[in-house]
Amino acid sequence: MKKYLLILFVIALVVSACTAEEPSVSLIGSWKLISYGPASAPTPAVADTQAGLTFNEDGTVTGNSGCNGLGGSYAVEGDQITFGEIVMTLMACDDPRMVQENAFQQVLANTAAYKVEGNTLMLTSNDTVLVLTR
Asked: Please, what are the domains in the chain?
């Protein structure tokens, strides 16, 4: 009887390990912007910019909108990411970079839904999406 209980216990451990939720660490790391804008028709990222975000394990985020550098904090709960106050440098750039920056500001303003699929990260707030890749 003890042998069967032990076997059931081991099976239960294996099943629970296989079905455990993937931790949010998949968000951790550097992501490069590939498109932005309305979720139904995103615009390709402005060429020759270093636009992207880096999510750190300590709850901080840094990055560049393609025009200005930025930094702040974030917290993840489920499929939602809440950004703390994001501070940015204040340089003016050409119109395409400023439009791209506006999309960054809209998504990073408060809470956004996030989804990681392979090497692609999608951050969506209202109808604005940032699509990034590792």
From this structure: 23-133 (2.40.128.270)
